[in-house]
Protein 1
Amino acid sequence: MLQRSTIQLLRLHFAFFLLPVYLFALSQVPVINTGHAILIFFILHLLVYPSSNGYNSYMDRDESSIGGVKHPLQPTRQLFYLSIIMDVVAVLLSLFISYWFTFCIIAYIAASRAYSYRGIRLKKYPIGGYLTVIIYQGAVTWFMVYHGSSIDKTIAVPPAGMVTASLLIGGFYPLTQVYQHEADRKDGVVTISALLGYRGTFIFTALVYTAAMSILAWWFFTHGEQKKFIALATMMLPILVYFFSWAFLVWKDVRTANFANAMRMNILASICTNLAFLTILIWRGFE
C-alpha cells in the first residue's frame, strides 16, 4: 500500500502546470495520431513528471513549502523505489511511440536525476539548473509531443515552437522559486531567482515572457492565423494583471514574495495557458 507521504510527494497535480507545453505542441501537429497522443499524455503526466517530483523530494527532504505542497511530509524509501518503477514503465511504453521518443524520455529522466541527485545536483547552480529545467520541460518536451503525436513521426519539428515552449517555462519558473531563497540557501542551492533577487526575478520573468509572446505572435501571423493569436493573448491577459499586481506588492514589501502568492500566480498562469492552447487545439476541428 502506498504511504501518505509517497502519494503527496509525487505531486500528481503538478503535472497540470506543465500541461500547456503538451497542448501547445499537439495543437501544431498537422495530422495527429490520436492513440499515440493519448499514450504520450499518460507517459509524461502520470509517470515521468510525478516520478521526477518524487525523486526530487526524496533527495531534498524539504521541511518548508515546495511547489504545490505547503506542508511536505518526509519521504521514505518507498518513494525512491516507486520513482524507479515509474521511470522503467515510462521507458518501456515509450518504445510503442518511436526510438526517437524513447531516447528523449531517457534523456529527460537522466537530466531530472542529475538536477536533483546529491552527487551532481545541477539545481544548486543558478544558470545550469535553470537551463536544464527550461530545455527539458520546454523544448525537449515540445519535440517529443510534436514528433510522437504526428502520423509520420517527423523529426522536422518547428524550432520556433521548441524555443517558445522553453521561454514560456522560463518565464514562470523563477517565480516558483521566489519564496524559497532562504530554504534553498540552507541546502547549498542558489536558484536563478536567488541570483536575481526579488525585484530582479520579476524583471527577468517579464522579459522572458515578452520574448515568448513575441515569437508566438510571429508564429501565428506568418501562418495567417492572427485571430488565433488574438484569442490566445486575450485568454492570457489575467496572467499579466496578476503578475504586475504582485510585482507592485513585492516592490513595496518583499515579504509578499511568499508561497501563497506564488501558488496563486502558478495556478492562474496554468489555467489561462491551458485554456488558451486547448482552445487553439479545439479550433482546428472547425477548420
Note: The mean pLDDT is 93.
Protein 2
Amino acid sequence: MELIAKQEARKASGEAAKAAVGTYQEPLDVLQGLIDRTESGYLTQSDQNLMMMADNPAQWTAMDGETLFEEARGPNNVSLEECDFGKGPGVLEGAYAELPRYFEDTGKVMDLETRLVHCMVTLQGFSPDDPEVAKRHGNGSDHMKLQTYIASKSSGFAWNPPMDHPLEKAMRDAGEVMFYRRAGKADFACSTCHSETGKRIRASVLPNKNVPEEWTKAVSWPAFRVGHDQVRSSQHRLRGCYWQMRQAGTVAGSDGSIAMLSYWTDAARGQPAILPDMKR
C-alpha cells in the first residue's frame, strides 16, 4: 500500500509539473518566489547570495557555453545543435528539467553530463581522452560552459524526469536505496543530513528533502559556489557529498551516480528549477 501511495503521489506531482513546463523565469525570481511561499532557514540563510544572484558569475559561463554549443567543432566540424537532449535535436528549453532520462539511441538512462559526452564523441568526433571531453570541472572547462548554458534554458521549468521506461523507474528506485543506505567509516547516508529541518554543517543550514521548496534549490546545479569561486555541476556536488560522508567516491557517468541524480530530481518533481543557482 505504501508503494502504491508513493507511485500515486509521484504521478500527481508529474501532472503538476507538466502544467508548469514552458515558463522560463530568471533564477532570482524563482528563488524569491520560493521564499515567498515558505519560511525556510535554508532558502534565506545568505543575504549576500540573494544580493549577488542578479549578477551571478555563472551567467558568464553560460554565455561562453552558448558560443561553444553553436560553434562547429571537433574532427567532424559540426555543432551540438544536432544533439538531442530529450526534446529533439537542438531543443534546450525545459530539456534539463527532464533529465536523467532513457535514450533509445544508447539504450541507457543518461544525465546531462553523460549525454553531452555522447554527443561530443558521436556527433563532433572528439575522442573521450580529448581535453574538451575529459576535463569536466572548473569555469574554464568546455563541460562547465556547455552544461551551464544548456541547464540555464530550464530555469523556472518544473522538474519532471520521465518515469515511462522501466529503466527510468529502476534507476530512480536504486537511487532511493542509495539515499537512505548508511555506510562508510562515519556510518552516514544522504538522509542523515537531508531528512530533517534544522540540521547544519557548521554555519550552513542544510536542505530537507521533504520540503519541496528547499529541495529544488538543493538540486539546482550547475551553480556558482562562492566558496570555490567556480561553477560546479551535479556530478561534482554528488562526489563532494560522498567525500563528506567519508564513503568511496562516485564515478561520473556510472549507473550509481545517475541513479542518485534520478532520485534527487524525482524528489524535486513539480518544483521550479533555479538555473544557474548561486550557493555558499
Note: The mean pLDDT is 91.
Protein 3
Amino acid sequence: MTLRPRTADASDLGAALRRLDWLLLLAVFVLVGYGLWAISGITRFDVAGDPGYFVRRQAIAAALGLAGMVAAVVVPVDLYRRHWRAVYGATIGVMVFVFAVAEAVRGSKRWIDLGPFQFQPSEFGKLFFVLAIAGFLVGRGTRIGGLRTVMSAIGLGAGPMLLVFLQPDLGTALVYGAALGAVLFVSGVRWVHLSMLAVSGVLLVASVLWLLPAAGVEVLKPYQTARLTGFTNPDSDPGGLTYNVTQSITSVGAGGLSGRGVEGASQTRLDYLPEHATDFVFASFGEQRGFLGTSILLLLYLLVVWRGLRVITVAGDLYGAVVAGGIVFAFLFQVFVNVGMTMGIAPVTGIPLPFVTVGGSSMVANLLAVGVLQAIHARGRLAGAR
C-alpha cells in the first residue's frame, strides 16, 4: 500500500518537470552566461596577475544557484504556504544572527563569513519574505481584503524591512517594500487600502528625509543622506558628493553604439568609476559594450519579466499567483533602480543588478527564485491538464 502514493508522487513530479517554462529557463541560462561574460571583461584588471579571479567566483555561485534552482523546482510550493510561520521565523532569525556575528564592513553588518565566501542573508530574505507574507495573506481566506488583514501583513513585513534597514541597507529594504506592495496587489487587496498604503509610504519617506531631520532626529546614515541629496541636486558637487553618479553617466555615454571594448574602456580599466563590478556594473558594461550590448541585456530582462508575469496567469492556486507576483515585481524593481541610478534617474541605493553584479548571494538567491517560479508554472499547468 505504501508503493502507490510514492509511484503517484513520482509520476506527478515527472509530469510537472515536463511542464516547465523552457523559454524562461533558456532566458535565465543566457542571462547567467551573458553576465559571466560581462564580468570577465569588467573585472579583468581588478586583481593583478589574476584576470579571472572574480569571474571564477561568480561561476561557482552560478553553479550553486543552478543546483538550488533544481531543488526549488522539486519542492512543492504548497509546502511554503503550510509552513509560512517557520519561513518567516527563519528569515527574522537569520537577520538577527547577522547583527550578532557579522563584522562591520564600511559601517554595515550584512555579511556572514563562510571561509572564502561571504553569505548575505538579506538577499535570500527577498524570496523568503514573499513566501511568508503570501502564506499569511492566502491563509486569511475571505478576510484577505479586510483592513485588519492588510495592516497585519504590513506589520509582518515591517519586521524584516526594519532589520535590513538597520544593517544599514536602504536599497534592499526598498526591494522588500516593493515586494510587499506587489504581494498585496496580486492577493486582491482593495484599491482604497493600497492607496492608503501608498500615502503612508510617501509620508514615511518625507518624514525620514525632511521632517525628522528638521526636528533633530537623523534616521539615515550620512552617506545615505548624501546619496539622496545628490540625486535631487546632481550638479551640486560633481567632484565629491555626486562624483560616482557623474562618472557613471560619463561611462554610459562613452560606450556609444558598440562600446569601447575591454582595453579601451578607460573609466572602468583605470578605476575612474568606483564600484564598477557592483553598484555601477551596468555603467561599466555600457562603456565596454555600448548601446547594443546593454540592449541585449535589457531585452533578456524583459523576457524574464514577461515569462514571470505569465506564471501568475497559469498558477494553479492563489498562493502560487501571489508568490509569482511578488518575485517578478521585486526582480523588475531591482533592474529598474540599478539601471536608473547609473544614468541619474534613480537614487544610488546599492541594489544589485540581477545575474550580473558580482556577489554570490545575489546570484544564488535569484536562481532560487527562478526555481520557485518554475515550480509554480509546472504544477499550475499540471493542475490545468487534469
Note: The longest strand covers residues 112-114.
Protein 4
Amino acid sequence: MDNIEVLVCDDSALMRNLISRIIDSTDGMTTIGTAMNGKFCLQKIPQLKPDLILLDIEMPEMTGVQFLEERKKQGIDIPVVILSSIATKGAAVTMQCLDLGASDFITKPGGSTSSNISSITSSIIEKIASYGSRYARRKGKQIYPIEAFMQQAKLKEATDAAIKTGLLDKINPQATKVSELPPTLWQPKKKEPQTITPEREPGPIDIVAIGISTGGPNALREVLAKIDPKFPKPILIVQHMPAGFTKEFASSLDRICPLNVKEAEDGDLIHPGQVYVAPGDYHIKVEKSTLCNVIRLSQEPQRNGHRPSADVLFESVAKMYKNRALGVIMTGMGKDGAVELAEMRKQGAWTLGQDEKSAIVYGMPRAAFELGAVQKQVSLEDMASEMNKLLAEHASH
C-alpha cells in the first residue's frame, strides 16, 4: 500500500512535531514535510507534491487565508484542511477559509497543547484519510480504505486512555498498526440492500431533512447554491460540526443560497423557503404547534457519537410528517442517520442518498442504502436538481 503524504504548515514547532508524530505513527500516511508559514508551504509544494496540506491560520509572513488566496490564483488543487481556533473570531476566519477552497477544518485543543493533542487524534486521522486518500487515488496510488484508518484511530484512543489510567506503561507501536490487524477488522464488505415496504404511499412534501458529516461543508455549498429560489418548503440540516462554528457556517451558506439560511434556535417557527442549520452540540427536532410547527433543541445524550445527530432529526420528522417529507443523507463517516432514514422510508417519506462516486466518505449513505432506506442514489452534482424536481412535482399547497 502507498502512503497519503501530508505537508504540515504551522508556525508552532511543537504543533508541527505533535501532529507529525500522529501522522507518522498511522499506517498508510506519512509527513512528507513541514513549513512554518504559508510562504514556505507554497515553496515546498512543487518539490514534495503532497496529497494533503494541514494548514494553520495565524502565521507570520503569510497567513492561512493569504496562502489559500495564492493557492487559488495558482490553480493548486491539493486539498487543504484548516487547523482552527475555537474562538469566535477563529470561526469567522475558518468559514472564510472554506469560502476560499479549504476542504474542512479541525479545531485545535485548548489548554496545554501537548497534553490535549490526543483529543484531536481521531479528527486528524479522519480528515487526512477522507480528503487525502481521494486525492492520492486520483494520482494512481493504492491507499487503505477509510475504515482501516478509523480502526487505527479507535485503537490509538483506547491505548492512550489505558496509558492515562495507568493500565499500560507504554504504547506497543504494533497495537495500533493496521498492517498487524486481521483484514476482517477494516475491510469494508458490500451488502445487498434490504427491502422496505412503506406503510403508505409517498405524499405531498411538507419538509426536507438533511443529514451530513465529513465532506459536508463544501457539499452543502454546492447543493444550496443551486437550490430553486422558489423552493416551497423548509429545509432542516444536521451537519456534524463543533459548537461555536455553526452560526458562522449558516451565515456563510446564507451568502450563496437563494433561500434564507440561519442557525436554528429553540422555538423557531418552521417557515417555507427557510433553511435551518442545527447548532453545534444541540439535537434538533420538530414539534407540533397550533399555528405553525416549531423547532426544538436539546442536549440529550449523543446518538451514534454525535450531537447534533441526523438520527434524532429523521426520527422526529418520521413521527410528525410520516409520508409527507423528504429525507436526504449525504457524505459522512459512520452510520448516523441510517436507521431513522429507514424509518422515514417505512412511513412512506421520499428519500435520497448521495452516491459513492461523489461522496468524500460513503459511510452514512452506504449504511442507509444497505438498510433499504434510500429510494434513489444521486450524485452531488445532481442533488439540488433532484430535490428541486421532487418539490416541484410533490410539494403540498
Note: The mean pLDDT is 91.
